[in-house]
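User: Last request for today: this protein with heme C, please.
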Amino acid sequence: MMTHRIVAALFLIALSSGPAIAAQTNHWARPFVASGGKLSPSPDACKTCHSDRHRDWVGSLHAGSFSPGFAVQLDPAKDPGFAESCYFCHAPAVEQREFLATSRGYAKNKGFDKAFQRSGVSCAACHLRAGTAKGPKSPALKPGDGGHPSAKDEIFKKSEFCAACHQADNGVALKGRALINTYREWKSSDYARKNVTCQSCHMPGGRHLFRGIHDAETARRAVEISTQNLSGRSGVKTILKMTNVGAGHYFPTYVTPVVVINAFLTDAGNRVMEHSVKKKAIGRYVSDDLKTEKFDTRIAPGESFEFFYGEGDAKGARNMVFEVTVYPDEFYARAFKAALKKNPESALLKEAARRATESKYLLYREVIKLEGQGY
Ligand code: HEC
Ligand code: HEC
Ligand code: HEC
Ligand code: HEC
Ligand code: HEC
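Assistant: Here's the final one, the structure of the complex with heme C:
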């Protein structure tokens, strides 16, 4: 099989989070064995008794982490070490690996469970250790109550639990900051000081939806947007102000999304006046080869981004429009399309490119009327 290493460099040497985080938990020491005893690690097994959690999780990106865009980059039989470096976050249990490292190189893993592998960051990956379900509470069951062995681990209530995969101190860094830096962004914000954890926002009420920038409603909660019209005789002048009021890290946190503000005038026929189009991008934009950071305009918690729009040539203009569009997978869309040019037949790449392109959505649109300005 042809593999296509695209985001490889982004994560390749990400194999442990920083010592400060690691000290808080051994829950995420990898590799770990999830299963043991009678409890199957399959999410379908958990579903029989925890159908509510399952219903939430199954629609989340955690459930989809063994995606076409992920799988296409791996060839475990040829390079098991590389695959392992990716499984570290996308399919972290030992039973999710085809091969295991031994003193004499990689050997076939007898405990490999393909269906479990494909379930990605599943219930068992987060909860199950050697057959015991770890969780935030003391076990409510007495022997003979049914259910399964369980044990309390404080880490479930802490952001350090999520940092195991959402912080990569040993991976690629540009301008002195890791490309996956979410935990540290949170740690230096007021949210950390007030103990508003990742779970508080991403798992409200214990829900397992894990919604983020791919969900329009969640992204709308992250920012407050307002506009101002200062237009006059000398032309159109407007301001859009966007404040990060709801994300506990930069908006957005990763290098992969881009948020584009499109500003333009429309005429009496509601047509876009081409000369007036201006754009600004919010994101941490890196080159395809991950060697350079082109710009970083992301919005830190509590801070604002302002777009001053000015157009002196407003003759015939009736409205001024601001449109904010989110491209959650901009980096991947670019990378997958480039890879497709070289391998146009790959079905996995086609699917990956389709998904990365189709995830975009309109976050906000505001029409400012220019009537009475005499343009
Ligand atoms: C036969 C039914 C059954 C199955 C199957 C099952 N559970 Fe449970 N589970 C229970 C019951 C009952 C409890 C105790 C209820 C409670 O504590 O609220 C429980 C409690 C838990 C807890 C809370 C532990 C704590 O200390 O906070 C976790 C986490 C958990 N289960 C995870 C899982 C996972 C993961 C799977 C699949 C690998 C699974 N369960 C499969 C019945 C089941
Ligand atoms: C990305 C990691 C992750 C995944 C995947 C995950 N959970 Fe959880 N789960 C957690 C965390 C963290 C908590 C604690 C949330 C809190 O209390 O704020 C939790 C809480 C729970 C609890 C509640 C325990 C209690 O005492 O209230 C149960 C039961 C549970 N999970 C079952 C499941 C099942 C079943 C699945 C799969 C369908 C699953 N989880 C998938 C991280 C995960
Ligand atoms: C430190 C944890 C970590 C490691 C290691 C890691 N990833 Fe990811 N990966 C993530 C997170 C978190 C996201 C979601 C954020 C985003 O979209 O950028 C993600 C997203 C992706 C996506 C886009 C979403 C999708 O599923 O299509 C691809 C593709 C991907 N990773 C491939 C890889 C490959 C290949 C490797 C190994 C070279 C790898 N990842 C290693 C954490 C990791
Ligand atoms: C075992 C590794 C792992 C752990 C632990 C983990 N995640 Fe993730 N998370 C991932 C990966 C991998 C993805 C991307 C999946 C994909 O798209 O391929 C992801 C995606 C997400 C997304 C979706 C982002 C988007 O682009 O919309 C959110 C939100 C998220 N994680 C929050 C959390 C929170 C909160 C915790 C802690 C309770 C947590 N994660 C723990 C690996 C992990
Ligand atoms: C105050 C609430 C809040 C806290 C705390 C918070 N988040 Fe978020 N998070 C959001 C909102 C809202 C979004 C959607 C907007 C965005 O992408 O910034 C989001 C987006 C994300 C995404 C999507 C990817 C991206 O590029 O933005 C991931 C992954 C994520 N959060 C993980 C985490 C992790 C891990 C923590 C803890 C270290 C955390 N979040 C803490 C509210 C929060």
